[in-house]
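User: Hi! Is it possible to get a structure for several chains at once, not just one? Here's what I have:
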Amino acid sequence: MTLDERKRKILESIVRDYVETAEPVGSRAVVKKYALKISPATVRNEMADLEEMGYLEQPHTSAGRIPSEIGFRYFVDFIMEKQKLSDEETELLNKVISSNADELNEFIGRIGYFLSQITNYASFVIVPSIKFKEFKSMQLIPLGKDKALILLVTDTGMIIHRRIDVPSSLNDEDLEQVSAVFNRVLKNKKISEINRTSLQQLREGLKHKRLLVDLALEEIDNLLKNTGDEKLFLSGTLNILNEPEFKDLEKLRKILTLLEANEVLKGIIPDVTGDEVDITIGHENKLDDIKELSLVYAGYKSLGETGAIGLLGPIRMEYWKAAGTVETVRAAIEEVFRQNR
Amino acid sequence: MTLDERKRKILESIVRDYVETAEPVGSRAVVKKYALKISPATVRNEMADLEEMGYLEQPHTSAGRIPSEIGFRYFVDFIMEKQKLSDEETELLNKVISSNADELNEFIGRIGYFLSQITNYASFVIVPSIKFKEFKSMQLIPLGKDKALILLVTDTGMIIHRRIDVPSSLNDEDLEQVSAVFNRVLKNKKISEINRTSLQQLREGLKHKRLLVDLALEEIDNLLKNTGDEKLFLSGTLNILNEPEFKDLEKLRKILTLLEANEVLKGIIPDVTGDEVDITIGHENKLDDIKELSLVYAGYKSLGETGAIGLLGPIRMEYWKAAGTVETVRAAIEEVFRQNR
DNA sequence: GTTAGCACTCTCATTAGTTGAGTGCTAATA
DNA sequence: TATTAGCACTCAACTAATGAGAGTGCTAAC
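Assistant: Yes, the chains can be modeled jointly so their relative placement is included. Here is the combined structure:
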């Protein structure tokens, strides 16, 4: 499946031209635009070969060629090089990175915005669920009559809270007392260490506040369960409005609807493995709904968990630019996460 | 500007037909579909009158009539009645209301989803910034080496937190001590009562932990400042893809882009005054960008502050349905907020 | 192996012709 | 006087025909 130098050059020209113009590329255009020292006729012969091999296709007899998905795949694997960010882009990225967005959501939001701004594709960032190891604090805070706030803090700084009803038979001091006992038993305790015995211990020590204890325990249980949901941030989805392949309203609706359903979207992103930028093109994707799209993405590590960032664009995508951007941003945010803890 | 019964009937027929079909309505269609006991010719005469009065317009000579914005306005003000929810819809609403979504965001999300589901228009919910009156608790929770969590709880159950760096010269006990002093001075204190004296008092009592105190005070200050941002929730924006008036890609892009910019959107919603459902049609709206859209909205009260819910659709909108839905949902969520505190 | 030349193919834009829905006006009718 | 039937007229939307242009594949010459 290896192509000689000239064929590679021609394939590359066609890919680049097609990505730029979204029109089939003719033999003359290839010669002219990329200053090859051969005639259109020769190019035509080569193109016929490339078509036979499956790298190109022809919308109709008298049109130029466009790269097939296989052609794009070959281009991505063996021809293109990832394009580095320009100086201005790098500067902008640094600004985004160093802006004191100490709220995680905001930071991620800016990263996503940057990705889609720079590339003009839709971007996504998956933030892994941050597993915590220890409880740091448990509070029951009275809020006026009959209400209280139950508040848990983990060693990762995550805060879980819920408003609960408090039987009016309990007063503020009772709440404080329960807080204290919980804290004593659970504080700095690893989750794995919280076993039946210690829970039993809690119940025993606070028999007469059974209801409250049960509520609190239920909440802790909840916390443990919900620890498994990673979050997906999307940005720049409207960029697909610029792509001529989606000028058709029905296609557009399909894609936008898909992008709106976050949960579905999580499913289409393949499991990230290493640090490398990965690319899936058109039908290589799992779900039918995105067989007209390509994905350029990479995993990153944060607190031992794996997240992902990536771009979502048409098959006719500037893979070199997309891959370069994803690679750089991936490294940058991993660095941030490393420093930050 | 009052119309006789027959003209009203004809205007209504044209509005309803046009809303349904998005096509200009001819005299024959009016007679046939709405079983009026007059001839098309008569209707034509009346239509000519209505056009002269500004209630109808004609896309071109040989087409039927469509309602002008003034026509819609007349229809909304003097002809239509708000349509009540069907039994199934009411049932669904009750389900949404009573589902134990004790997270505010989730509750609002469901309300928005309901609104746009039922009407097929984009919906918005504005949640007012909840002003709080008292501090309930202030905690400094150590999180491993050099880090701590500063955590404030207000009487409205709002939680403000930030991760801060702690000078390594301070140990866990120092943190606890600062917490305690803060709590003693601020607990259950109204904001208006926190004056310079009490702050001075804090600083004095903790002179040797100056840095920490300043950090904490800064955070409290922050909290007070940020109390002013209301939140906007949007839902069902893709419904506009169904409207034939936006089959044009450029228009579509404009609107979707607008809807993506939450901040701009807040600006287009007029100040809500009373409890009544209000409607602004096309050019009655402030911003140029939404002069091709209509707004159906109403305010609601929550903890003394005013929020809003509403729908955003084409000028050719089912105002009766939209207004009825908004009215019902408005009442429902106000009831929820009333009960919940 | 490469290239010039040429017949051929197919899309796209333009034009002309046709259809049909709907109007406005006039004259007849109740 | 209000209503209606009848009819000529208008205009958008569809259809078919035509021609231009881009690009190919093939053949024969270099």
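Chain A touches chain B at residues 102, 136-137, 139, 141-144, 147, 149, 151, 153, 155-157, 159, 161-163, 238, 241, 247, 249, 252-253, 256-257, 260 (CB under 8 Å). Chain A has a mean pLDDT of 86.

User: Great, thank you!
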